[in-house]
Design a protein that fits this description.
The protein is α/β, with parallel strands linked by helices and 311 residues long. The chain is built from twelve helices and ten strands. Helices cover 38% and strands 17% of the residues.
Length: 311
Amino acid sequence: MPFVSAPDGVRVAYELVGRRSGEPVVMIQGLGADRRGWLLQRPAFAARHRCLLVDNRGVGRSDAPAGPYDLLTMAGDVVAAMDHAGIERAHVMGASMGGVIAQIIAVTHPERVRSLTLACTACRHLPWRRDLLEGWAEVAETRGMRALTDQALRWLLGARWHRRFGLPLGVFAPLVLNVPAHAFAAQARAILAADDALAAELGAVTAPTLVLVGSQDVLTPLADSEELVERIPHAELAVIGGAAHGFMIEAAGAYNRTVLRFLARFVESPTESPTESPTESVTESPTESVAESPAAAPAGPLHPVPAIAAD
């Protein structure tokens, strides 16, 4: 696996998968998650694109130095990985904390962003979310990651998933339990330290932007996504019905189809049909649907993301 050294000496791991001739997609995961958080996106996206999956500092095979961490620095880590991989410009996709990192890249390095996909994320702090994240950091430091897992997972999955499957510890637990407690806390506090002034800078984003949210997301609810759409010129909003914060797993098929259709509109030289791989829908709930919010109608030349239903 390739590594790149950040200016402060931290080694950042990344992985390249997919079509060598495909347009690059940079994939950035959220708090405590490494590149394995894109497990159900990899086959579908790699069939069409060259995918760069980054382990944020503190997780996966990247170094996990003592804190504090900083989201601006972590955005620089992603850009350094792009440079090391020879990627000048890419479709940038971030989830949760990774969505904030993606916003920072779009604001500070607009020339590197072909399009922007922001999933289950926000651009401002809310008092209750500050308290929640600080509580998670304290639990990780004082009681360890296993104690944190039960608390955090309940915020990631929707009520329908809980009723049908319970907490899928076999999927999520390895992503959380393998994270050093100090690194998880440092990432959480990097989010808390992020400047809300970022929100005011989003009006300068020029990249075509898709914002996605699950209808049952209680960690970054619909209002957060609606604010992003209001602040980013020509941004579009897609709501995935019945899914929550972890909708890349809960509703992988719907997520993959929605994003790939969006990306297909901005691929300069498509090399294959944007029709989805037959394997994309195997994890999708029979009642999943994606609806475009009325707020998503673009103000400019972009076309709305079509509503889709489960197979």
